[in-house]
Amino acid sequence: MQDLYEILGVARDASDDEIKRSYRRKARELHPDAGGDEGAFKELTTAYEVLKNPEARANYDRYGDPRGPQGASDPFAGAGFGDLSDLIDAFFGGGFGGGGGFGAGGRARPRGGRDAIVDVQLTLDEAFAGAEREIELEMARDCDACGGSGAKPGTQPTRCATCDGQGAVQQVTRSVFGQMLTSSVCPACQGVGTTIEDPCASCAGEGRRQVTETVTVDIPAGVEHGNRLRLSGRGEAGRQGARAGDLYVRVHVRPHDVFEREGNDLRCRVRIPMTQAALGVELPIPTIDGETTLEVPAGTQPGTVLTVRRAGMPKLNGGGARGDLRVELDVEIPKRLEPDELALLERLAEQRGEDEPTPVHNGKGLFSRLREAFGA
């Protein structure tokens, strides 16, 4: 698909007003009523519908798809561009090409194939680095015998005599508002616009057959659990040569033994002895792609979270940008001490005046707080 910004003739940082002005200018030039190109006008309108919607535009900038990786932000209610085409056709009299409905010159076109969805399992390491998967699918594909036409090899579908190839029949009715022209799907050709006198024996006139094939899917680095990737045109083939649907790959990322993911950041817990927490230490820690050194300052408290910049997950289509690694420190208190270790701690407690049990709250002893409470 051509870049939507190029279609509208604006820069990627164009304002909403610039996008609107450019669309209006080009629409006047390309509108079929002004002698413009119907396909180019529809392409222009599709681009404008995406870029005028802030959420769809953000998804397009990041993922190359207005629905985003999960298809949850589709400005056309998840129906895809084919259904937008139908909407445009309804407003402009069925004069444009595209998905189902009526094509250029009012001619009918077969309904496109359905979308398909498959699930892929990844480890966190694969989500970090990107992966390649070969997926076996059973899918309707264009019949290799008739090339997708549905007609016996050596023959061609013929124009439907009932609707003269339009795919629809029109009827004039009278109402209180005057005469009204209504359209309905041709009952003879079911909206296709052609009939097949001698169907292909391999596909029984459908133009497609069920086949088993292997599809290679390139999964980009940075995908998250639940993301959906779109492979345009790799879904079910349409009837009699119509456009194919899309294939969606739904990503499932298995839990990791060490790291938990929070957006593009990673989080882990590291246990250190109380002596290192008190004195400070340069601590070697694992990262998702290797190892680094963490500076633990003296006097670190249990539960402290330290951050290693740019050691998290890559941002999807983020040009090399990465999240952070957040390390939560779990200070380990020894349960057993050797006699000499116990003696050292006792001397330290005595030097610090901590050898007597004194409950402390906000830096003040219990008796100090009682005296303050009673004004003593």
Task: Indicate the topology.
Blueprint: H1 4-8, H2 16-30, H3 38-51, H4 54-63, H5 81-91, E1 101-102, E2 108-109, E3 116-122, H6 124-129, E4 131-142, E5 158-159, E6 168-175, E7 178-185, E8 194-195, E9 208-219, E10 228-231, E11 247-253, E12 260-262, E13 265-273, H7 274-279, E14 281-287, E15 290-296, E16 305-308, E17 325-332, H8 339-351, E18 360-361, E19 364-365, H9 366-373
Parallel strand pairs: 3-11, 13-17
Antiparallel strand pairs: 1-2, 4-9, 5-8, 6-7, 10-11, 12-13, 14-15, 16-17, 18-19
Helix pairs in contact: 2-3
How many strands, what sense, and barrel or not for the largest sheet? 4 strands, mixed
Count of domains: 3
> How do the strands line up in the largest sheet?
12-13-17-16
What are the segments in which pLDDT stays under 50 over at least 5 consecutive residues?
71-108
Summarize the amount of helix as a percent range: 10-25%
Query: What structural category do the secondary elements indicate?
Result: alpha+beta
Order of helices and strands: HHHHHEEEHEEEEEEEEEEHEEEEHEEH
Terminal residue distance:
81 Å
How many DSSP E strands?
19
Radius of gyration: 33 Å
Instruction: Give the count of helical stretches.
Output: 9
The pLDDT mean sits at: 81
Note the beta-strand portion: 25-35%
Explain what you see.
- With 376 residues, this protein is of the alpha+beta class.
- The protein folds into 3 domains: 1-109, Helix Hairpins; 113-157 and 196-254, Urease metallochaperone UreE, N-terminal domain (HSP40/DNAj peptide-binding domain); 260-373, Sandwich (HSP40/DNAj peptide-binding domain), CATH 2.60.260.20.
- Helices cover 23% and strands 29% of the residues.
- The longest helix has 15 residues, at 16-30.
- The protein is elongated, with a radius of gyration of 33 Å.
- The model is unreliable at 71-108 (pLDDT under 50).
